[in-house]
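Page 47, continued from p. 46.
Same chain as before, 116 aa.
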Amino acid sequence: QVHFVESGGGLVQPGGSLRLSCAASGIISSIVAMGWYRQAPGKQRELVAQLNDRGSENYGNSVKGRFTISRDNAKNTAYLQMDNLEPEDTAVYYCNAVSKSLIQYWGQGTQVTVSS
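Result:
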């Protein structure tokens, strides 16, 4: 099993920045990728960003150039730096990890609200 502690969500004005953190514990050695998905009311959950153990990054089209994912392996923590936030970024953001056997683990979610 893999467990997460997520932090960093909140309310920010358009154009502002937030940084999400996701600290993982448990069977860390089995994780091959970590990232975030988000889900807005009435919409499907979508990929925001993912970083695999080879260092390859993958971003959703709507966040490319604005969001940056990184990972501190010593702390088993992934970070999502979100800049130039837009009201359309408002959603619950879920930390995600994928194991070698392609099992997906999910965090409890953290709310990000972009509003003036």
